[in-house]
Design a protein that fits this description.
The complex is a heterodimer. Chain A is mainly α. Helices cover 80% and strands 0% of the residues of chain A. The radius of gyration of chain A is 17 Å and the shape is globular. By secondary structure, chain B is mostly helical. The chains are: A mainly alpha, B mainly alpha. The A-B interface holds A 18-19, 21-22, 25-26, 28-32, 46, 85-86, 89-90, 92-94, 97, 99-102, 104-105, 107-121 and B 9, 12, 71-72, 74-76, 78-84, 87, 90-91, 94, 108-109, 111-123, 125-127, 129-130.
């Protein structure tokens, strides 16, 4: 039960992080330069963006929950379960970021999810 | 008329994500290779040796580059495209581990690699159709 709660936390924190990172990067705006000084200015804008920082916070929560759950659960169980992230991130993209997700894209995401789970099995 | 920038950005997204996937897989191969050479789980021995290893620094740098490229793509592309497209790195890690580290890869894992590849192709197709759909409007 403890394991299930932590895996749910990992999956939710990771997708929440993804959504925040995306929102932050969209707020900063499309990066379309290779000019070092401009890139540095963009970098400064990124690391002071609240959504971006929240994204990093959730990524840290994901990482620490992952390490904690590994202290008792098998990696071969935790890692395949993590592939649910692809599904939850897509729901986040649909509901919060208002992206349109076609039937074909859902199909692709489900295949990826299954594939990642298979690769991570022992 | 948001169509033209959108089409240009699909190519740009792919051009950013391919090096991101390769950098990530190569970074992991380097880390795994060097850590196994050090081959101890005693922290007092491991940490100092790891810190002075250029291979590990290079591997870590590749992982950072990969994350920065991922963020760059997110500055214009859909999250629902970038995240599953980047999952190609899982397949890439298996291929690299087999090729460079000579790890034995089971049939189950190879079938996973196949599913991921088909999935990513579908996601790529869905994105290019989205671009065409916008252009027809």
């Amino acid at each position: 039960m403890k394991t299930v709660v932590l895996i749910a936390m990992i999956v939710l924190a990771d997708s929440t992080g993804d959504v925040f990172l995306t929102r932050g990067m969209k707020q900063v705006g499309e990066i379309s330069t290779l000019h070092p000084r401009t890139l540095l200015a963009i970098g400064r804008k990124v690391i002071t963006n609240k959504s971006f920082l929240s994204g990093i916070f959730f990524m840290a929560v994901t990482f620490f929950s992952f390490v904690i759950v590994l202290s008792w659960a098998d990696l071969s169980f935790v890692f395949p379960a993590r592939s649910l992230i692809y599904v939850t991130s897509t729901f986040g993209a649909k509901w919060i970021l208002k992206e349109t997700i076609s039937f074909q894209r859902w199909g692709g995401i489900l295949l990826v999810c299954l594939g990642v789970a298979l690769v991570s099995l022992p | 008329m948001a169509s033209t920038p959108r089409r240009a950005s699909l190519k740009k997204t792919i051009a950013i994500l391919i090096p991101a996937v390769f950098a990530q897989a190569a970074g992991n191969v380097l880390l795994s290779m060097r850590m196994k050479q050090i081959g101890t789980s005693q922290l007092f021995v491991l940490v100092p040796r790891a810190v002075e290893s250029p291979t590990l620094w290079f591997g870590t740098a590749l992982l950072i580059v990969s994350f920065l490229l991922f963020l760059t793509a997110l500055s214009w592309a859909d999250l629902s495209f970038v995240v599953p497209a980047v999952s190609m790195e899982v397949a890439m890690n298996v291929i690299f581990a087999h090729h460079f580290l000579h790890e034995v890869v089971s049939l189950t894992r190879w079938s996973g690699v196949l599913l991921i590849s088909i999935g990513v192709l579908l996601i790529l197709r869905s994105e290019s159709q989205k671009v065409q759909g916008i252009q027809e409007l």
